[in-house]
Specification:
229 residues, single chain
């Protein structure tokens, strides 16, 4: 009888230990590793100067690859959402290309830098959390820092391709670019100007033939990677 009680006691203790273990949340990185079957086949990490046409290019790319398998993720999305919440601003206005966004850009950059100094991968992790598994191609449309590139190359090593969108200054100016101190000379605009060997470079200077040719080369590479998974 005493042995039974001891056995029950050990079992009860074991159950409690299991329950306690279940309550301990695993780090995000561990969860991502375990969910490898739901990881994308390709991650296209885009960078480019202001008014280079990143959104224009990534929209075309998504349409050509297929919106059912390709999604556009913006690192600035969660940043702007939290910034809007903290400062009681209109999120939809911060997400578009209006003067409303430009008005708060410098302060938003400073606020974002403070968050990144605390955790360099903070916004990268938020952006890539809970992406539907049906999307095999992720387009990250606004990488801005060396730490962004580092995050994706570490967490999605085989899947990541880096893409730089280039446009001549006069072309960018024709699209409304005006140099703004504190914005265009900040880390968010300059950190990826050097130090990265881009897998693909797309020239968006208004020459449709050149851009189409470069996009087709990128799409061919993407399709090859999808077919292997």
């Amino acid at each position: 009888m005493e042995e039974v009680k001891k056995s029950q006691k050990r079992k009860s203790s074991g159950d409690n230990e299991e329950k306690a273990t279940d309550l301990i949340k695993k780090p995000k990185s561990s969860q991502q590793d375990e969910e490898s079957s739901e990881q994308p086949s390709v991650v296209l990490l885009f960078s480019g100067k202001r008014k280079s046409g990143k959104d224009f290019v990534t929209d075309i790319l998504q349409q050509r690859i297929g919106q059912d398998v390709c999604t556009i993720l913006r690192l600035s999305g969660p940043l702007k959402a939290q910034y809007a919440k903290d400062h009681n601003l209109k999120l939809d206005k911060l997400l578009d290309a209006t003067e409303y966004k430009e008005k708060y850009r410098a302060d938003m950059i400073k606020w974002g830098e403070e968050k990144r100094n605390q955790d360099p991968g903070y916004f990268c992790q938020l952006t890539t959390t809970d992406v539907p598994a049906s999307f095999k191609v992720w387009i990250i449309s606004d990488a801005r820092r060396q730490t962004d590139v580092k995050y994706f190359k570490e967490h999605f090593t085989k899947e990541t391709l880096t893409v730089r969108v280039e446009a001549e200054l006069k072309v960018r100016e024709s699209r409304g670019f005006v140099f703004t101190k504190g914005v265009d000379d900040a880390e968010s605009e300059c950190d990826l100007d050097t130090g990265i060997s881009w897998d693909f470079t797309l020239h968006n200077n208004g020459d449709k033939h050149t851009l189409d040719k470069e996009l087709n080369s990128l799409i061919e590479c993407v399709n090859e990677r999808i077919s292997k998974n």
